[in-house]
Recover the amino acids of this structure.
């Protein structure tokens, strides 16, 4: 069946460095992707999204890259800060479907060392 | 604007019992989705309600049910609890149903089944 997976369950970076979190998806029909951040004790928070007609999208200190050929996307966080410490996970969706088609990855825990 | 609220935040139940969880969406949001989050399976979609109607359902047994009231508040019920139902149950609200993925998550209800 469909799956969305992250390459690394944990990632540790130094404060100020850039972080890259990777995600792979299996369904080539997936055409909309979302990155979420979940801090301890809180629900997931929307970070950024990208549609399949784009290769790159930038937000505030975050960039998402999409490679449809290899079914891979990444989240880049520039100048990582202690407040970025959280679990990050991606989700893939067949656009035009309902929320039921949203498939989530299990998450990468980002730890930022001061 | 107040965020999504969920009650209770923590719950301990015994196997075989039933439980009801409550979710109050952001004011003006008519769609409420429920998710189960576990370390092993990650975030999994349970169901979505919009204007008191269930719009979509995930792949969970019939022991999991829900409803939505005219004020958009939603409840989910799990009957005949099993140990494997121990999880963080999250609800998310959005303004519309369907492909509208600016979902806002609540903090979740941590359910422990003993």
């Amino acid at each position: 069946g469909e799956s969305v997976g992250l390459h690394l369950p944990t990632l540790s970076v130094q404060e100020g460095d850039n972080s890259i979190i990777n995600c792979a998806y299996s369904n080539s029909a997936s055409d909309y992707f979302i990155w979420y951040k979940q801090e301890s004790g809180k629900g997931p928070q929307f970070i950024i999204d990208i549609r399949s007609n784009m290769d790159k999208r930038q937000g505030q200190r975050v960039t998402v890259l999409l490679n449809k050929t290899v079914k891979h996307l990444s989240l880049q966080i520039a100048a990582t800060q202690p407040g970025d410490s959280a679990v990050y996970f991606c989700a893939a969706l067949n656009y035009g479907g309902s929320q039921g088609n949203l498939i989530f990855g299990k998450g990468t825990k980002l730890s930022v060392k001061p | 604007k107040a965020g999504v609220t969920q009650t209770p935040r923590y719950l301990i139940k015994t196997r075989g019992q039933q439980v009801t969880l409550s979710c109050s969406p952001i004011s003006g949001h008519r769609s409420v989705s429920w998710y189960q989050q576990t370390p092993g399976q990650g975030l999994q979609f349970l169901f979505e309600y919009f204007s008191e109607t269930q719009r979509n359902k995930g792949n969970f047994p019939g022991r999991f049910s829900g409803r939505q009231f005219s004020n958009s508040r939603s409840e989910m019920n799990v009957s005949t609890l099993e140990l494997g139902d121990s999880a963080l149950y999250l609800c998310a609200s959005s303004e519309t149903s369907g492909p509208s993925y600016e979902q806002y998550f609540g903090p979740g209800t941590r359910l422990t089944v003993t």
